[in-house]
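#struct-pred
JK: can someone run the complex with manganese (II) ion? inputs below
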Amino acid sequence: MGYNTAMSMIFDLHTHSTASDGTTTPKELVQHAADQGITTLALTDHDTTDGLAEAAATAQSLGVGFVGGVEVSVNWNSHVVHIVGLGIDPDCRVLQDGLAVLRQFRNWRAEEMGRRLEKVGIAGAFEGAKRFSNGILIGRCHFARFLVKYGHAENEKKVFQHFLTRGKPGYVPGKWAELEDAVAWIRAAGGQAVIAHPARYPFTRTKLRRLLTAFTDAGGEGLEVVSGSHNRDENFNMARHAKEFALLASTGSDYHGPENPWRKLGRFQVLPDGCTPIWHNWASSSTLCAVSA
Ligand code: AMP
Ligand code: MN
Ligand code: MN
Ligand code: MN
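RT: done, structure tokens with the ligand placed:
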């Protein structure tokens, strides 16, 4: 099995901006996408659609196809799973009400992370992390950037290892959305639900298949077969799962900014042979622009 290199379009359907835990503004992100020759970009910030209007306006002015998206945090089987929504209408009340609850939890969690880090001798982490964010949505990455800056760890990866993952002092278990709810919100907003970076979860094959079954039963349509966080074997393994479960294949870098040079925008666009791309029945780039500029 090889990669399907016949496509002339370059898709990147999983990216972040400063509206969540990315480091480039929506405008800068789209400008960068245009420079990289990306023909269709989705902005999929964690639990918010705040960046979509700015990104859509920039995309329109630069002639880049744009898809309004979101990455919803979900609890499934005592794990956190991320569900990307593509082609969503950000004016959908059902979606916005759902995301608002998740952001409320994020705010409480950030304060709780601050309290827990204080107990291990790290003062001011909540305020510090908040300064790395846009002040509205705080995630673990903002804590990581604060902790690296003040010398508590060498780099972000190590911060996660030592402070921010399960069992570590700054970790607070998430109270996120139910899988069925996340898919329902995305569908209510007219979007397609996609399981993000499926090879990143610490699942056995059996557990992954259980997730795919629950997801398709709930109305989920896509699997991120190709991801900036997958290796080649993982891409091909996920291509087989997509085919077996009749899921459409998506691709995304999970770009968070230029600080991670190995995760380039649009670098991971090519799908393995035999996948049905999630964009197979998308119309022209004008309809992709579900978010009006
Ligand atoms: P949150 O949704 O606030 O719990 O944060 C999740 C985000 O943290 C992910 O989207 C990644 O951007 C980042 N992240 C999670 N685990 C790691 C890790 N081990 N190293 C670096 N970044 C990570
Ligand atoms: Mn992130
Ligand atoms: Mn994710
Ligand atoms: Mn992501």
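RT: quick notes.
The first helix runs from residue 26 to 35.
The CA atoms of residues 88 and 191 lie 4 Å apart.
JK: thanks, will look after standup
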